[in-house]
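Order emerges. For instance:

***
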Amino acid sequence: MANKSMIMPPIVLACVCAVCCGLLALVNSITKDKITAAEIQAVQDSLSALPDAGAFEEITDYATPEMEKVQVTGLYSDENHQTAVLVTADGYNKGGLQVAVGIDAEGAVTGVTFVSITETPGLGTKVESNPELLLDSLVGMSDAQSVDNADAITGATFSSNGLKNAVKCALETYELNKEVLVG
């Protein structure tokens, strides 16, 4: 009897795990297309929210700068020679800021829109909810030094620095690809 009492719990646990894995796989197969569509729609909404946004087309072959805590995930250009750089940056959370940075033909920031933000509610989210504190001051900037000199939001230093790093990365990406973007 001791052998049966030692064998049954692992068998029952294995069966429960197999059923859970099967259910997770089923839910994933049902929702993955909807999640992908929602992510694509969030990017399109952010691009269209940029000032003077035209019909953006994705550029598939582009150079990106090597920066820590920041990653370029997309590059777009419209018929008005405005560039949009999709950037994911670390704020307080790893990858907590996903933004679209608009850059005009002269290389100046036209605006920043948020695709997603997973920073601390009430603190880190101030970079989005209170644009007058930092976001608005980044518009018109065209170099990393100016972006670095912008005041961070008190209590949201990590998120502020993440947003500034995202903008600097976008400006550098623009410079690296200027020939392709402007012609």
Notes: The chain has one domain: 49-182. Residues 49-182 form one domain. The chain has a mean pLDDT of 89.
